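== Sequence entry ==
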Amino acid sequence: MLLTHYSNTLLEAGCDEAGRGCLAGPVFAAAVILPKDYINLDIKDSKKLSERKRDKLRVEIEKEAIYWSVAAVTAKEIDEVNILNASILAMHKALNGLNVKPTFILVDGNKFKPYQSIKHSCIIKGDAKYYSIAAASILAKTYRDEYMVNLSKEFVKYQWENNKGYPTKIHRDVIKQIGICKHHRKSFSVT
């Protein structure tokens, strides 16, 4: 079972990102502050949930969270600062979007740059350990997937409605045939 909080502070924000390993599209991040003793046994690492379940939980999280925010960093920005820095920037932007300043930040992974003067802790596989990080992973993933599905309507050949910009065989084959577009990350190896 996931843990509700890492620290004793009331406004603990969980942060996670989605889309680091993609060849195209932005990286998204979310910051979520849940009620102190919040429990929802359906919430877990977004990668362990079906798309339908993630979409259902997104609605529940948005309704039940005290505060939440989602932000993105574009492919162009990723190329300029690299994917790690872009992921951290997306998390900082998500934290900026909260209607309140958190008193502690829980981050999925092992790398983060201090945000303002707020203490933080990096938790490896945090989306499988803490509700707030798992909730953030669900929001980041669903918002990014939705963005890529909408983008696929204009860039049909890449089939982003199916691969969401990840390096599937079909996505790579299409890139070999027609090349990349403005939404591809030029700093990533696409072959």
Observations:
- Strands lie at 12-18, 27-33, 67-73, 104-108, 120-123.
- Residues 45 and 127 are 5 Å apart (CA to CA).
- The two ends are 40 Å apart (CA to CA).
- DSSP finds six helices and five strands in the chain.
